[in-house]
Design goal:
By secondary structure, the protein is an alpha/beta fold. It folds into 2 domains: 327 residues, Rossmann fold (3-Layer(aba) Sandwich); 81 residues, Sandwich (Immunoglobulin-like). It has 13 helices and 16 strands. The longest helix has 17 residues. The radius of gyration is 22 Å and the shape is globular.
């Protein structure tokens, strides 16, 4: 019999206490509530994976493990994860390295290749499965399918927890809560590793993983930076799931309850660490209005990177924009930061941006759309070069007639870009 760590024994009592206040979800959006998951969970080797997955992990130089998750339906759970860290000779003089939590999106699971990407960059990295599954079997066909093999003592399947809400399941059994707890417990486990500097950890997530990263950043001040890719909050107002949320049996109370309990907006207001928000102009799931509103709701300084028509996917698209590493390095390793827009103004149709940067600019563009009617994913965004003199820290552009929305996109000579919004 495996020994369970103490918080698993007290979680059921804590669960009952919180669920007694279900009509007032304020507790679920209070960072003090989430301190329950700031305890290092027990962990074990992942004996459940097959030889092929074990071989992939070994080839990537990472290891597979299981760690204690939140209580689900009154029973303890375990969470699958891959973990890797640079070898001792590639660590700092104190033997420490920065750390990062990697949260997959819809249709995904823990990816050993993503962990290796960050280990090769000098980070200790943990990628967990947030849907009670193991990375066994082929990748699901559907974008948000959950066809990975189930972990017998895993948590609920994703995504969103909408059906769980309709069924009246307890608030803390909902996937949104369980997955967020898995992320925070994963962070607690990461912080306990002797090679990890606890003052230099961050989080990045893709799509639904970014939704969870937003919640985790607001719930866990131990993170020093956060990089949500695509995902954001205010899903009930504007997202691919707004219609689904609106159709919770046509129950306005159910929609309101989900948004108050689980939407990232409730926790983002507590986030204080620096953010880099990455998304594309035409993302099908997380449109510009909700994305910007999310970024502007935090107590933290935010940087933006919104390339023209960025694709939405795991792999290179979501995992490897070079701005993510540069942003993380600037916070954890003293690296050269991304350019910092200082002001964006417009007067009589003439837009202007100013910035400060340690690296000179290579290109400054105005991105704009004249469409203020179509769904965000269908709007035609165009670009035109701004007028500026190399060496200056300001640029201008005349807004084309009929422009409905616009922003500047600045690329330095490293090829790293930031976006500047009015």
């Amino acid at each position: 019999m495996k020994t369970r760590f103490l918080p698993a024994l007290i979680f059921p009592l804590f669960t009952l206490a919180v669920q007694a206040e279900e009509s007032s979800p304020a507790a679920l959006n209070d960072p003090a509530f989430w301190k329950t998951y700031h305890v290092t969970p027990a962990s074990w080797p992942a004996e459940e994976i097959d030889a092929a997955v074990r071989r992939r992990a070994e080839e990537a130089g990472v290891r597979a493990l299981l760690y204690e998750g939140a209580v689900y339906q009154g029973k303890p759970t375990r969470v699958f994860a891959f973990y890797g860290a640079p070898p001792p000779e590639k660590r700092g003089t104190d033997g420490k390295v920065p750390g990062i939590i990697l949260v997959h999106g819809g249709g995904g699971t823990a990816f050993e290749s993503w962990v290796k990407l960050w280990v090769d960059r000098g980070y200790a990295a943990l990628a967990m499965d947030t849907c009670g599954a193991l990375p066994l079997g082929k990748k699901p066909e559907g974008r948000f399918a959950n066809d990975w093999h189930r972990l017998p003592d895993g948590g609920p399947m994703g995504w969103g927890g909408f059906e769980q809400l309709l069924k009246g399941e307890p608030a803390l059994d909902n996937w949104m809560h369980q997955a967020t707890a898995a992320v925070l417990l994963g962070h607690s486990w990461l912080l306990a590793q002797p090679e990890v500097d606890p003052q230099r950890t961050g989080i990045t997530g893709i799509s639904w993983g970014a939704v969870l990263a937003c919640r985790a950043a607001g719930a866990d001040p131990r993170f020093q930076f956060a990089v949500p890719v695509y995902g954001c909050g205010f899903l009930h107002e504007s997202s691919a799931w707004a219609r689904q949320l609106g159709r919770l049996k046509n129950d306005a109370d159910a929609t309101l309850l989900w948004s108050h309990r689980y939407d990232p907006s409730g926790l983002l207001v507590h986030a204080r660490m620096p953010f880099l928000w990455v998304n594309g102009t035409n993302d099908f799931a997380f449109p510009l209005d909700a994305w910007l509103k999310s970024a502007r709701s935090t107590l933290a300084p935010s940087a933006y990177c919104m390339p023209l028509r960025m694709s939405h996917a795991h792999g290179g698209s979501g995992e490897n924009p070079p701005e993510i590493q540069a942003f993380a390095d600037s916070i954890t390793r003293g690296g050269v930061p991304l350019a910092k827009p200082l002001s964006v103004t417009v007067q009589e149709g003439r837009a202007r941006v100013t910035w400060e940067a340690q690296k000179p600019m290579a290109k400054v563009e105005l991105l704009f759309t004249k469409d203020d009617v179509s769904p965000w994913k269908d709007r035609l965004w165009e670009s035109l070069p701004a007028q500026w003199t190399p060496g200056d820290s300001h640029a201008e552009a005349t807004l084309p007639e009929g422009t409905a929305h616009w922003f500047f996109h600045l690329t330095d000579k490293r090829g790293l870009a930031v976006s500047a919004f009015p």
